[in-house]
Specification:
The protein is of the alpha/beta class. The chain is built from 17 helices and 17 strands. Bound molecules: ligand NPW and potassium ion. The site of ligand NPW has 27 residues, from helix 2 and helix 3.
Length: 481
Amino acid sequence: MEDQTMPSPRQQSDLVLTSEQVRYAEQHWAENHGGDTWPLMNAAAQSFVRQTFERVRHGSVLVVVGKGNNGGDGYCIARRLYEAGVPVTVFAPFGEPSPGIDAHRALTELQQTGLPVFAEWPSTSVDTVIDALFGSGLNRPLDPTVIEIIERMNQYPAEVLAVDVPSGLNADTGQPMPVAIRARATHSFIAWKPGTLTAEGPQCCGQLSLDTLGVDVDSDWCWQQETQALPARSGQTHKAQHGNVNVVGGRLGMGGASIIAAGSALAAGAGRVISHCDPAFVTAALVHHPEVMTQPGLPEVVNDDSVWLVGPGLGRDDAAYEQVRRHLHSPGSRGVLDADGLFHLASLDVPCTNWVLTPHEGEAARLLGWRSDKVRNNRPVAAQALASRYQAVVVLKGAGTLVATTSGLTFCHPGSPAMATPGMGDCLAGIIAALLAQRLAPKDAAIVGVNWHAQTGYRLAQRQRLVLASDIIRALPQRDE
Ligand SMILES: NC(=O)C1=CN([C@@H]2O[C@H](COP(=O)(O)OP(=O)(O)OC[C@H]3O[C@@H](n4cnc5c(N)ncnc54)[C@H](OP(=O)(O)O)[C@@H]3O)[C@@H](O)[C@H]2O)[C@@H](O)CC1
Ligand SMILES: [K+]
């Protein structure tokens, strides 16, 4: 078996597949292995027990099983734990699986051990609950009876370990339908599922692990949490070698946005940061970051090697629109379009080939002409639709930020809920602009920037209740502990 901690020679452990693609991969595997998916279920159960045995071996376990093959995994896991001497209770609230599917065979094998399967909540107290109600086959919203079972499992005074996907979570979108298991840990099979990596997925999964079960998969989607491509600094260097970032914004009462963006661009290593803000904010900008240069007012759009960060606190008036229009029509211009820059982009039907767009869900909805909840419920699809429409690198912000290009999608570090504070987006935009200035390609700047920002916030959130953009700016230049 190929475990996440032991990368396979083909390095497929970072690949992400939708539930439909996983089904296809299973079938393809079966066609090449005697037409049978049963060995995969056995391998999945063996892998789950191996992954969790140290957690469960000293206590008692309740396995809650559904009628599909996720429940089948649950029956196999229960049998293996029982045979290993762990006290196990099995609860099947929806009855038996249909004859003919692997789950039915798993139930039959469990019954041969003599272990009973309960149709009502067992009264025994347990130390661990194993959630095998639904996996990648959840295909509609839950009805009230099922919601009650999931809520009861979440309220149980025992830690919950989820099989493949936390039950109730849409494996493709990361949306609870409308509730989902909050697991301490989730062990997935074959490939990462998009819904476990974005939206509410990371919060529901807890500690996430994967076993590919030796199934070959191929995907344009991947999961990367690395920041290894951060620009290195060598002995003979000069600030001019680290690029210029021009921050265009900080107008009409929104000075803070450009001060934060300029601060994070500096902290992320840009050689020079020039703030084109309203004259009223120059003093404040310099008090916060005396290293920043200021050129008050909206700049002339010049075609040099600079990176432009256009949007934080730019405003929505005609002058701001004209500024965005000129940047996007200027040949060879490059940079990051954020906040009000994205507002004006919606009225400009223009490709943004050398630009990184950084919308949150509301901005993405406006650019696509969708409702916000449609974006929230389809984050991977929305990110790719934007990348195609604007021929750009798109960073769709939110928990489990996505980086889309016209040819693929990357799932990034989920950060922390403690980072949901004002100015976080301005801070991220400044980091990405600084990485562009230091010669990272737009896609790499976006992925490395998102991961650096999220990991820094996550680290700070281990010791503070909230993480502010200013905290991130202070922490960026530090080495990881
Ligand atoms: N076979 C293999 O090779 C391998 C499979 N593997 C495992 O199989 C899992 C996928 O199995 P799966 O496709 O059977 O789907 P699963 O998640 O069990 O759910 C389907 C059941 O739920 C039901 N149902 C759906 N929505 C519902 C709702 N809202 N409310 C109520 N019911 C609802 C649906 O009912 P129906 O639509 O038929 O009415 C059906 O009974 C995968 O996650 C992994 O754990 C691994 O072992 C690796 C090898
Ligand atoms: K599950």
